[in-house]
Amino acid sequence: MPEPSDTPTTPHVETTAITAGRGASGDSLSPVLFPSTTYTVDTVAEQAAMVSTPRPQKLYSRFGSPTVRELEDAVAALEGAEAGLASASGMASVTAVVLGLCSKGDHVVATRQIFSVTYALLAMHLPRFGIDVTLVDGTDADAIAAAVIPRRTQLVLVETPANPALTLVDIDAVAAIAGPITVVDSTFATPVVQRPLEHGVDLVLHSATKGIAGHNDALIGVVAGNADLIDPIWAWQSAMGAQASPFDAWNAIRGIRTLPTRVRQQSESALQLATFLEEHPAVERISYPYLPSHPQHDLARRQMSTGGTVVAIEVAGGTAGATRFVERCRLARIALSLGGPETLLTHPGTFGARFTPAERAELGITDGLVRISVGLEHPDDIQADLAQALDG
Ligand SMILES: *Cc1c(COP(=O)(O)O)cnc(C)c1O
Asked: pLDDT tens digits, residue range 193-215?
């Protein structure tokens, strides 16, 4: 049956990225920055109403602010969520979710292929609060479900694509776990590549510092889902004082306008580079979800609309080989972070030096591993740079 002509079609992500999150800016095309920490009212009743409402926008900026709300609304629209909450960083979002939703005696299941600071929170800090954590292999969906303890597991936290080697977690399988609140750290994908809430998980979170803001000028995190989960996370975040800064939110909204276009180009370049690197004799192993050689390639095709903007390689020669490679690159630079316009190289072995060998093994940090965050330079120029560094 043809659709009735007055039914609005669901806009594409490119369109939502342009139209979303404009609630506070009036007729200003560019987002308006509200740096104010507080707002005046004419009556005490007005203030009383705001005090009793979660996530008020104009009470006091630790509780929320108009610029931050624009970003939260934009990410919620992109993820298909009822509500969003922005935080001072990606780690502030992770911490607000875990501590806002879990109490002493609760149990958390998480994937061990996970951002190293999230690992530190889970493995080193949560036990101090009486919250037990079980880490499982994220590529084994049955193991994730099997680790859930009925009535004790409060949260299942997975990251996909995951640090450091771009392994994937089956989002449908996580969504099918009954009981605990399910959370996906979707930082590496952005809402352009995958939308976990559409699979049925409860919450999606991002280090928006990375692809969403996308210009290496905003440290910010965001979590999105139903308001009945976002509100208690917000209450805890207000106690921690870990709210997002309006300035960083302002930069992140600017980034969102070009997010789909950036991610599409960076993904196309990443696939070109991955295809090139796979054939290079100095590359021992490569991981890119849209290469047929990725062990979870079928899953990647199912839940991701591109292979993403990051490529992981194992350079021959271990730490020495990886160090030599990254230091010989000229266009691609050595730096932490990903998702920005510049191609960046990270050697997880260097960053992971603070972990014991057993912890490094658990996290999958190998000596020759190099993470390439593919930027917006012309892919042929990036390829030439990586080639001269590997060949030399
Ligand atoms: C960077 C990152 C984080 C932490 O985000 P910050 O903004 O640096 O605090 C969390 N998860 C993933 C997957 C990340 O890449």
From this structure: 999 999 999 999 999 999 999 99
Does any ligand 1 atom lie closer than 6 A to the CB of residue 159?
yes
pTM attached to this predicted model: 0.96
- Name the closest-CA residue to atom 7, ligand 1: 90
**pLDDT tens column, 105-153:** 999 999 999 999 999 999 999 999 999 999 999 999 999 999 999 999 9
How many distinct helices (H) and strands (E) make up the chain? 16, 12
* Closest alpha carbon to 82 in 188, 192, 230: 230
Quick: pLDDT tens for 268-289: 999 999 999 999 999 999 999 9
Q: What is the number of the ligand 1 atom nearest to the C-alpha of 91?
A: 9
Q: Is the CB of 72 under 6 A from ligand 1?
A: no
Long-range contacts of 51-58, Cβ-Cβ distance < 8 Å, separation of 24 or more:
54/227, 54/231, 54/234, 54/235, 55/83, 55/85, 55/230, 55/231, 55/234, 57/24
> To the nearest 10°, the Cα dihedral for 221, 224, 227, 231?
-20
CB 313 within 8 A of CB 291: no
Whether 89 is in the pocket of ligand 1, judged by its Cβ within 6 Å, is yes
Distance 110 CA to ligand 1 centre (A): 15
